[in-house]
Write a structure and sequence with these properties.
Layout: H1 2-14, H2 26-32, E1 42-49, E2 59-63, E3 66-71, E4 75-82, E5 84-91, E6 96-103, E7 107-116, E8 123-129, H3 131-138, E9 142-143
Parallel strand pairs: 1-7, 4-9
Antiparallel strand pairs: 1-4, 2-3, 2-5, 5-6, 7-8
Length: 148
């Protein structure tokens, strides 16, 4: 078992190549990093990936089953959505992993995507983080373009 885990770990290190995704302008990225309060009836979703583990992997991201883009290391997405319940999903090894989030008007929410060791290839999952932790992480990242 130790040999298998060691092999999986070493294999994942080889998967730390260079995944890229389409990026927003520096101006838009800097604007999103101001963390402005969303308009009444709206909420802001920041979804980010701050780890270099599995950096060769791009993982699809969805909000309410609508594709927003492929994540890559050291990038974030920002999306203003109507306040209420939302399903944020990430592609993983054997399907999507979902996070359900109830949002309030005029608030920003921060969701961290992380890569985890899988059976054949790295999987991905999502976790809601505090505003403080999210802002600190996003301040060091670049904004990805939402894809249609």
């Amino acid at each position: 078992m130790k040999k298998l885990l060691s092999l999986l770990f070493v294999s994942s290190l080889f998967l730390t190549g260079c995944a890229t995704t389409a990026m927003e302008s520096q101006e838009k990225s800097d604007q999103a990093k101001q963390f402005a309060i969303p308009p009444k009836g709206q909420s802001g979703l920041y979804i980010y990936r701050d780890s270099v583990f599995g950096s060769a992997l791009k993982k699809n991201l969805y909000i309410d089953d609508k594709f927003i883009g492929q994540s890559a290391p050291k990038v974030f997405f920002y999306k203003v959505v109507p306040s209420g319940e939302h399903k944020i999903s990430t592609e993983s090894e054997f399907g999507n992993n979902d996070l359900t989030l109830k949002t309030d008007s005029g608030k920003n929410y921060f969701i961290r995507q992380y890569i985890k060791i899988g059976v054949f290839i790295g999987g991905a999952n999502l976790e809601q983080v505090s505003e403080e932790k999210g802002k600190e992480a996003i301040s060091k990242l670049k904004m990805a373009k939402e894809q249609q």
